[in-house]
Amino acid sequence: MRRPLFAIVAVAVAGAALAGASSAAAKVPKVITALTITGNGPFDIRRGGKPTGFDIQLVERMARIAGARSVSWKVVDFDNLLDAVASDDAMLGAASITITPDRAAIVDFGNPYLQANMGIVTRKGTPGIETRDDLRGQRVGVLEGSTAVPVARGIPGARVRTYLTMPATYRALLNAKVNAVINDYGQSRWYVRHNAPKFRYAGIIPVDQQYGIAFNQSRDSLRIAMNRALVKMKKDGSYQQLVDRWGLQSQVP
User: Fold this and answer.
1) What is the pLDDT of residue 153?
2) How far, in Å, CA of 138 to CA of 119, rounded?
3) CATH architecture, range 5-113+212-245
């Protein structure tokens, strides 16, 4: 019996679609290499010797949806992370990285996944510091290479000191080498919550910034697949579950 023409066309279209889907899945590596930092809760921390946190769990969930089997993490200093991704030392980097034009010149960012504001942390009992204006003339600690650096340097009279890691930045605050620390609001609140006797979350500095996953510029297929996975996570509720689990609030659509 001769098959009708529309049936042949339908089979051909379906076959092409399946082939396209298989081709897209095939372009996602089974093991995704990724860079992160540590001491950056709730985004990137260590538990039981392994990296975890909001960024880690977000990337691993996205990777599974995209078709990867696993993510292989390597911890580096934040100041070296983007250059390492740009050099293809890893396929992507995730460490509450704020999207900026300068950074986007050397890596490709995935779709924004969280709104980024800045938080102010002081030692417990420090009076008179709650807003950006209160930091005028103060010694302010920030993470080297982070977007907190220009925010701090934009405060009139602030004496800005940079540190290679967030733990080193908070040690400087504890040892009174700086009067306050500026960092991502989520990380700031997390750190105070886990070190409450020593530190105080003083307030927020609103900024028009968003976080994104940084991809090597040759990894278009992976970036597109991960973007699609993020959309699926927002639809099925698993993205919101991660936001709630790690105590974050400020989202992007």
Assistant:
1) 97
2) 15
3) 3-Layer(aba) Sandwich (3.40)
